[in-house]
């Protein structure tokens, strides 16, 4: 407004508060000493509130940049944050009106006008602080983590309210003091009382800023590392221990994975290591927040083996969990799988690399030494930032739906990321991208990939390697740091497209180490024979490569052995055989015609409750062509305590999966327990150690 440049210089915010005040009102009985002390307290509150608001505001801005989207509207109605900003705007308007219009007026203003202005500032700011604080608590409870930005905004609002209110009350106090002559330095130097109050205010604000970080803390137990046992090579059919998880539990099961020393149970809120012999929990980590699946890696949130929920280093010694924060950020927690100790926790803000991989969440990749999360490359030892992913040029597919491109600035949106269980790279190599052109006109998919790699300790040494054999209708397959490559890439590239149409496209292929391809290792290629393409198997620890039917070759990266799957199936042993097994209901249970025949034979109606639950308790382990079937009988795989307590209930066993882990092979399957009386059912997941 006109003239506000000079008149809108409110004395209530200036350093001229020690100027000769007006004479006290006649009849005032307040001692001058007490009046001065009150003025010093208000000056300290004003200074401390201003500094607290500045500190909290800077911190809130920093957190908002690291957590984009946290301040966005969470509903169509007026949320508490928006209402709080309106109240703060009201308080600021009242203060500005008094400072610029009422205060500069020539006529003196009564005390009640000043008190009214102070109340009109104090009340809205107090309500705003309460609303923001309550909103922070609600949002934090919803995600199980301290919600970012809001607590800092609450402290900043409180600091602003304290500053402005103290300024108005200080003007009221100044009007009651008698003038005194003091040196200029006395006006500029704060008193001890002012300093003490300012320090106390900042201390209270700092404590309020620090408290949220101590809420929603994790609970963990740790153990001493033990020597890892070998993975059993044959499948037992007798349960030796059991764990049961109800689907309705707040910490229900997401899946089971194999760690470095035994099976690891992944729940909604954390992880726990199991003793392979007793099934007892050895170590655990849990927090109120829920684990969110990572993105990429041909991952689907519906996968039952927890392959989307966790990352595992190729040597299985580090487990990566991701907790959502309610905004575009993920709390990454890395655990030592041998002890359960927390290696580090890191708040990762979703960046351009995450978005490039067509993700809605964090894209990770794990080696034995580093964790790549978006652009960040973190040490698995302590979480320190060791590098950033380099920019690489990956060829574009130019809208060819049969071409696949991963990485670079514009990945093919029809494609998926290189398949690797648990988001693994090589043992010492990061995969930076892949390009799989449609080079074979006689097939509907790519048969060749160029893969861009770099050692995890030198990301400037970028290497692009051709001749990587992709899975049918997808990209390369990586298991335990190994993939499949043509034995003679140049000759194979020339051969593609020059063969007759009835020629079955097989070529000599090798299993190759990513570390050797990137220069981080020297493992020699392992010949696999004349084959067609690898096949992805979720959570597998062996490479499965298909040839002309019925040829299927299995490569075990741990031992370096190459085996024919048919031979392993005949022997019913070997890690490749175990990886190939699927847990299913017996064929007569799963076949629709068999179900209808069962209904007709027993005079039942065609309702799900009457489909013979009591007889559908067995399971069987089948390989890919059903040539090997191993029965898992109900009495053998069920906890005797559950059998004894089954009076009045019917158990219906669903499909499951096996987890070969050091010391034990774990069976995981779902079941429905149906009450005979009222028909209600309780769905559970059972983890069984087989011996």
UniProtKB/TrEMBL annotation:
Annotated spans, Disordered: 1-35
InterPro entries membership: Quinoprotein_ADH-like_sf
Keywords (A to Z) from UniProt: Membrane, Transmembrane, Transmembrane helix
Highest taxon, organism lineage: Bacteria
Transmembrane segments: 41-62, 82-102, 114-137, 149-172, 193-213
SUPFAM superfamilies xrefs: Quinoprotein alcohol dehydrogenase-like
Protein name: PQQ-like domain-containing protein
Lineage: Bacteria, Bacillati, Actinomycetota, Actinomycetes, Actinomycetales
């Amino acid at each position: 407004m006109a003239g506000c440049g000079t008149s809108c210089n409110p004395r209530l915010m200036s350093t001229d508060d020690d100027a000769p005040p007006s004479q006290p009102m006649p009849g005032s009985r307040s001692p001058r000493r007490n009046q001065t002390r009150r003025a010093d307290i208000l000056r300290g509150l004003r200074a401390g509130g201003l500094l607290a608001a500045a500190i909290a505001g800077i911190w809130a801005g920093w957190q908002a940049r690291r957590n984009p989207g946290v301040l966005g509207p969470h509903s169509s109605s007026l949320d508490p944050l928006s209402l709080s900003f309106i109240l703060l705007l009201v308080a600021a308007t009242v203060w500005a009106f008094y400072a610029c219009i009422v205060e500069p007026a020539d006529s003196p203003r009564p005390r009640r006008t000043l008190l009214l202005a102070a109340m009109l500032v104090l009340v809205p700011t107090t309500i705003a602080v309460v609303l923001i604080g309550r909103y922070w608590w609600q949002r934090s409870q919803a995600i199980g983590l301290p919600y970012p930005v809001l607590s800092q905004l609450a402290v900043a609002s409180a600091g602003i309210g304290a500053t402005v209110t103290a300024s108005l009350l200080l003007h009221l106090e100044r009007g009651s003091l008698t003038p005194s002559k003091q040196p200029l330095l006395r006006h500029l130097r704060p008193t001890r009382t002012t300093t003490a109050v300012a320090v106390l205010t900042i201390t209270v604000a700092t404590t309020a800023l620090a408290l949220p970080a101590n809420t929603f803390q994790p609970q963990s137990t740790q153990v001493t590392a033990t020597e890892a046992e070998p993975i059993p090579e044959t499948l037992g059919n007798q349960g030796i221990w059991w764990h049961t998880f109800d689907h309705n539990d707040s910490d229900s099961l997401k899946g089971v994975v194999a760690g470095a020393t035994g099976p690891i149970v992944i729940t909604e809120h954390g992880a726990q290591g199991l003793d392979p012999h007793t099934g007892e929990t050895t170590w655990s980590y849990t927090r109120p927040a829920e684990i969110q699946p990572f993105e990429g890696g041909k991952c689907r949130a519906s996968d039952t083996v927890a392959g989307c929920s966790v990352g595992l280093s190729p040597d299985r010694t580090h487990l990566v969990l991701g907790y959502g924060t309610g905004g575009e950020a993920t709390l990454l927690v890395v655990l030592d799988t041998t002890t359960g100790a927390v290696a580090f926790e890191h708040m990762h803000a979703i960046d351009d690399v995450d978005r490039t991989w067509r993700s809605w969440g964090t894209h990770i990749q794990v080696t034995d030494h580093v964790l790549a999360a978006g652009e960040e490359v973190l040490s698995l030892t302590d979480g320190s930032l060791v590098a950033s992913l380099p920019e690489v040029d990956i060829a574009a597919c130019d809208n060819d739906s049969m071409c696949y491109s991963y990485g670079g600035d514009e990945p093919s949106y029809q494609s998926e990321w290189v398949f690797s269980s648990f988001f693994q790279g090589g043992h010492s190599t990061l995969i930076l991208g892949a390009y799989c052109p449609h080079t074979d006109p006689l097939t509907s998919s790519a048969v060749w990939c160029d893969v861009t790699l770099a050692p995890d300790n030198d990301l400037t040494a970028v290497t692009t390697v051709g001749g990587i054999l992709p899975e049918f209708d997808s990209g390369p397959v990586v298991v335990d740091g190994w993939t499949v490559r043509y034995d003679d890439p140049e000759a194979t590239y020339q051969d593609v497209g020059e063969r007759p149409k009835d020629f079955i496209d097989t070529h000599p292929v090798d299993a190759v180490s990513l570390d050797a391809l990137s220069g981080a290792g020297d493992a020699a290629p392992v010949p696999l024979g004349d084959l067609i393409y690898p096949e992805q198997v979720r959570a597998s620890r062996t490479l499965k490569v298909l040839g002309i039917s019925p040829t299927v070759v299995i490569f075990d990266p741990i031992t370096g052995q190459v085996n024919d799957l048919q031979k392993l199936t005949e022997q019913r042993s070997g890690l490749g055989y175990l990886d190939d097994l699927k847990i299913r209901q017996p064929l007569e249970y799963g076949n629709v015609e068999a179900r209808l025949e069962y209904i007709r034979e027993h005079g039942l109606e065609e309702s799900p409750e009457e489909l013979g639950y009591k007889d559908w308790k067995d399971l069987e382990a089948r390989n890919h062509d059903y040539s090997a079937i191993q029965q898992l009988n109900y009495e053998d795989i069920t906890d005797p305590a559950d059998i004894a307590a089954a009076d009045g209930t019917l158990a219906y066993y669903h499909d499951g999966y096996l987890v070969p882990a050091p010391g034990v092979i774990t069976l995981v399957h779902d079941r429905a327990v149906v009450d005979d009386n009222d028909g209600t059912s309780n769905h559970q997941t059972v983890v069984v150690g087989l011996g």
